[in-house]
Amino acid sequence: MVDLFGHAGPAQVLERAARSGRLPHAWMLAGPPGIGKATLGYRFGRWLLAGGAEGGLPAGSAPLHLDPGHPTFRRILAGAHADLRALRPNTGEGGVKRVIRVEDSRDAIRFLAMTPAEGGWRFVLVDGAELMRPEAANALLKTLEEPPPRAVLVLTTAAPDRLLPTIRSRVRRLDLAPLAPADLDPLLMRLLPSLSTTERATLGRIAEGSAGQAVALAEGEGLAMQALVDQVLADLAGRRHWHPVAEAVAAKRDGSGFATFMALLRGALSAAVRQAARGQGAAPWLEGRALAEWSTLWDRLGQLAAETDVLSLDRKQAVLTALLWLTPPRR
Question: Model pTM greater than 0.90?
């Protein structure tokens, strides 16, 4: 994805810092997964390498704008620009854990220390910086402490607290918020053109402003599982639908339906409790318990989902247990 949806404020901060002549050498773009952190990082890199900081580009309609026909834009899109490097997590030992390896970190450090091939800047984007192995993170510290001239390092992370405190203290942090519906809907129209307006709106709501999460839900029965969540919450006392719901949730042998259903169920509880606590109206089904009880139930459902996954318990029975917990207590 080369277009940026939303995040005009952070983009403007980056552009102003670059034009000021006092551009910090390291940045951290923090925010939930799938909201466009790497997209903003690439946008900044393209604009910077094309001479934007030096005033070599015409003013665009949006911050950090670079015409797609610009040679720098085309070469970066093709992965062929000599002054830009991107680090992403690789599959770790056993083929499961995704990590950024120390050898990749050291290669990026050497790259930043080299003279820019085109006489401008060197730019490194570390996408998913929280997945750096400890030795990879430590390797970056010296570069952060003694940055080479005309070199910029951008870290993106969905979990900034997992980064070393010494790294966090040496970067300029920009927090990116989830996408507003006005920004998310046109993006989903492009990414998921076959969906209806109602389906896109549902995905946007349950994905909480994350385009990446919305796409994952669309590709993994998210809409079907959300319909089951809505059905359950609309009639918490009605047990006649328990078994059909549990069977539908547990139908996939890989457990993906169960994981999605439980995540969406907990998300619905969390969103409803937040809304009620802010005085923005309470869902009718919340009235059966105090808000504190719903928060405790949210924790219990998380533990149930985790135990079912780790211990390979019966998923249908786990769903039935969850529905029993949701049933309003008798007064």
Answer: no
